[in-house]
From TrEMBL:
This is Purine nucleoside phosphorylase. Keywords: Hydrolase, Metal-binding, Transferase, Zinc. Belongs to the purine nucleoside phosphorylase YfiH/LACC1 family. It catalyses: adenosine + H2O + H(+) = inosine + NH4(+); S-methyl-5'-thioadenosine + phosphate = 5-(methylsulfanyl)-alpha-D-ribose 1-phosphate + adenine; inosine + phosphate = alpha-D-ribose 1-phosphate + hypoxanthine; adenosine + phosphate = alpha-D-ribose 1-phosphate + adenine. It comes from Congzhengia minquanensis. PANTHER family: PURINE NUCLEOSIDE PHOSPHORYLASE LACC1, UNCHARACTERIZED PROTEIN YFIH. One of its GO terms (molecular function) is hydrolase activity. The lineage of its organism: Bacteria, Bacillati, Bacillota, Clostridia, Eubacteriales. It comes from the Bacteria.
Amino acid sequence: MTNNFYKICAANGAWFYKNEILERTGLVNHAFSTRIGGVSEGAYSSLNLGVNSKDEKQNVLSNFQLFSEAIGIQTEKMVLSNQVHDDKIRIVTKADCGKGVLLNSDIKGIDALITAESGVALATFYADCTPVLIVDLQKKVIASVHSGWRGTLLKITQKTVLKMTREFGCDPKDMVCAIGPSIKQCHFEVGKEVYDQFVNVFGQPAADNTIQKNGKYYVNTDALNVDALAACGVPLENISVCPLCTFCHNDVFYSHRGDGGITGRMCAVIELR
């Protein structure tokens, strides 16, 4: 597992992060957006990509255009998730392009997207939750996964890998995975009832990756997502974790906890070339 392969980029006024391991594959274009470089104001300042937020719709559309031009992925090719902190996964195709941003969408209650088609950009959304991008180097299949703490408990990242294996014949040992900016252990505080759920699902690794302080529990969800990926056969050296905490760096990232619940959304997007 590595945590030093992320670089900050800026284009068209928008700031975003790229993972160098994914870049080196030559197979995909991808990005993790920030909150910098858009037109939204107030709590949503400024590159808000949350289509379901209470921001002005035109601002969000303008932000999509700015972000798309910055990263070189057309908005028309994006397929947006519709997240509910569950473990539902959908395979999408070119017929789904534009859904959720430019077109009405039948993609409801979906927290992970998979495609084997080039020119289909998979977009999932965050403001503390964990973004995971996956590439199968041999079968050329990609996924974008939204893994909040509930999704982590449901092992949605692992289930996405297993669906890629089942539906496309992928082998986890051929996959590379990039875990993007999210709330880190330093600020992911939960009560005992949530901590107990993590222990029930992950066992000793949950206890090993939790710090207890003043009656509260601080869980390392990145480590648990890595554990879930490794458990289904993804090599540890193929998993890259961004060390940046969205709460700590609230000037760069939207943070649901840091912003008191009223905030914008960032996007993790990936497209086969």
